[in-house]
Amino acid sequence: MNARTTTLFVALLALTVEPALAQAPSGQATATTNTQLRRLPDGHPDMQGLWLKSNGGFQGLFVGSLDGTNFAAPRGGGDGRGARGGRGAGGGPRGGGLGGFPPPQYEYTPEAALEKQDRQRRPYDDPEAHCHLPGVPRGLEQPAGLYPVQIIQDEKYFALLHEYVHDARIIPTDGSPHPQNYWAWNGDSRGHWEGDTLVVDVSNFNGRTWLDMDGNFVDENEHVVERFTLVDPDTILYEATITDPTVFVKPVQERFTLRRVPAEQQILEYSCLEGERSLQHFTEEDGGKKRRAK
Amino acid sequence: MTGWGSWRTTLLWATAAAVVAAPTPGAAQRGSGAASYSPPRLWDRSTPDFRGLWQVRDTAYVNIEGHPADGGVAAARSIIVDPPDGKIPYKPEALARKQENFRNRATADPSLKCYQAGVPRATYLPYPLQILQSPGNLAIVYQKNHAFRVFHPETRPHFVSTDFWMGDTRYRWNGDTLVADVVALTDQLWFDEVGNHHSTDVHIVERYRMTGPDTLQYEARIEDPNVYTRSWTLRTTLHRITTPGARIIEDECLEDADGVRHHVSPSDPKSLLKTDYSRWKK
Q1: Confidence at residue A111, expressed as pLDDT on a 0 to 100 scale
Q2: Using CB atoms and an 8 Å cut-off, which of residues 153-172 of chain A contact chain B?
Q3: Which pTM does this prediction carry?
Q4: CA A239, CA A229: separation in Å to the nearest integer?
Q5: How many other CB atoms sit within 10 Å of the CB of residue A16?
Q6: In what helix (H) or strand (E) does residue A118 lie, and over which residues does it extend?
Q7: Quick one: which of B243, B188, B193, B198 has its CA closest to B221?
């Protein structure tokens, strides 16, 4: 009787917590200190382990693009994304995340809206198709359940080692400032803790980044604030606010969860230049080489 | 009384020190028999702390068997410590392949195509690497081509059903030496710029050991019965980069108009691309 009550209570609790979290305004999940989390000696939550994006945000070109406009059919070979990698050891879409996160909404300036339309007509110019680093937050904003990220953490660094395109972000959490004269695909990340949430300020982008395969983009004025919150031992809530005054009329919000990958799975190697065969999937012809040559 | 008290205190301190410095089991069997340096520990007070930025100072990346001065790079000895002649003990047909690689090195070197450098080559490239560590976790991020390796505990078997550019690594601690077992490397990798090579059956045992606060000795024993008549060992030293604020920077490959790929520096203003919206105002 006692055990059944407990189970019922836990089930109810789970039901209550999940939608509440999904609807919570940014940062609200961090208001209280979670006592059941593992912590490092410095007192900060221990987010180490292997994680997979479980839900929300980008769901793949075949479901719909980020801003809700659907492609009638995938262009080219039909499996452009899947052909570029795939999860060897386990993986696959994992349900069960917190779900219910709306896709990000983009509100462009008039000129940037035209720029986006232009980019939609040339998806083969997406830097990801050429094996460049995806930028922030696109590195984490991969199709759910496909590429895991390994987190290693100490008192000075929070490192994200992404399987996808062997993208490594080593984020200092020592209060150091952004550098001068540095322009990178992933920009420059500096983290600090606000309670149990790791807040990462990302700037110094090189202005070349696309946000997805549908022409959504940012320019050199991109600035991102990311928030990593361990909401339970197996779930990280990820939130990103993208501002870019020359592209967006209001900040873009992204929210989704990362779920812990079972311990028997491991990160594998993703090679891109070392055998990239996917560009042809982006157009009917040759990945746009002919059009670019004109 | 005072004398007795201070003797007791000393004894206590000595005991405490012994407890703190107590080596983990097996520490006595150090590799290479060099003088022992006790490295700092992680916060679990037992795992040796190799964290930091490291880089070699030698030029073995040109040719691990040694090379004459050329192209602004000073002459260097072989870093192969076994066999004693410093030469890779190739089988005849494997030596022929190496010589063919050498003739084609201007285009055939996989690193020219921005491929990940593999093991052990990534270690002695003239670029920094960063060791990330916490109790139970270890990874190395190499600046060149943003390659990384996650070291998995040896308690789990190798993942061998495919070949990787950076291999599959399992590790254990032998005293204060990190011993890593690496397999599943692709045969498209070279050891250096002159075409020294291995097959997919190559098996590498790496040993990382701190010999001082800012020096990390790196050793790799390489065996591959398809290619060599016996196993052989190379050794080099990684030096800690102590410059304040030093960090791994993004190392990217860009393709120029001719389809040639180049590593670009994020410190090069040409890396910054400004979107021109004025064309939409016509």
Answers
A1: 96
A2: 153-154, 157, 159, 161, 166-168, 170, 172
A3: 0.82
A4: 9
A5: 10
A6: helix A110-120
A7: B198
The CA-atom distances, in angstroms, between A73 and each of A67, A76, A79, B8 are 16, 9, 11, 82
Q: Which residues is A235 bridged to in the sheet?
A: A232, A259
Shortest distance between the Cα of A235 and any Cα of chain B, in A, equals: 19
**Contacts of residue A204 in chain B, CB cutoff 8 Å?**
266
Beta-bridged to residue B178, according to DSSP, are B173, B208
Residues A27, A237: Cα–Cα separation, whole Å: 10
Torsion of Cα atoms, B3 then B8 then B11 then B15, to 10°: -160
**Confidence (pLDDT) at B261:** 74
Res A62: pLDDT: 37
Among the listed residues B200, B207, B142, the one whose alpha carbon sits nearest the alpha carbon of residue B171 = B207
Which of B164, B266, B277 faces A112 most closely, judged by CB atoms?
B277
Q: Note which residues in 24-53 of chain B have CB less than 8 A from chain A.
A: 43, 51
Residues A279 and A123 sit within 8 Å (Cβ to Cβ): no
A172 upstream amide cis, omega within 30 of 0: no
Q: How confident is the model at residue B209 (pLDDT cuts 50, 70, 90)?
A: very high
Concatenate the DSSP letters of all residues of A234-245 into one string. TEEEEEEEEE-T
Do A269 and B166 form a contact (C-beta atoms < 8 A)? yes
Task: Answer whether B132's CB lies under 8 Å from A157's CB.
Answer: yes
Alpha-carbon distance B177 to B221, whole Å? 14
Identify the pLDDT of residue A19. Answer: 38
Residue from A173, A180, A150, A165 nearest A226 by CA:
A173
In angstroms, rounded to a whole number, what is the distance separating the alpha carbons of residues B197 and B188?
8
**What's the pLDDT tens digit per position in A67-112?**
433 333 333 322 333 222 333 222 333 333 345 677 889 999 999 9
Count of CB atoms situated within 10 Å of the CB of A118: 14
Instruction: Using 70 as the pLDDT threshold, list the residues of chain A that sit under it.
Output: 1-33, 55-100, 274-294
ipTM of the complex model: 0.86
CA angle A195, A201, A207 (to 5 degrees): 160
Using DSSP's 3-state secondary structure scheme, residue B98 falls into helix
**How many angstroms away from the CA of A51 is the closest CA of chain B?**
14
Which are the contacts of A54, defined by CB distance < 8 A and separation ≥ 6?
A: A94, A95, A96, A97, A98, A144, A145, A256, A257, A258, A259
CA–CA gap between residue B115 and residue B24 (Å, rounded): 39
Residue B98 near residue B195 (C-beta atoms within 8 A)? yes
CB atoms within 10 A of CB B150: 22
Tell me how crowded residue A192 is: count the other CB atoms within 10 A of its CB. Answer: 14
Nearest one of A286, A291, A272 to A127, comparing CA atoms:
A272
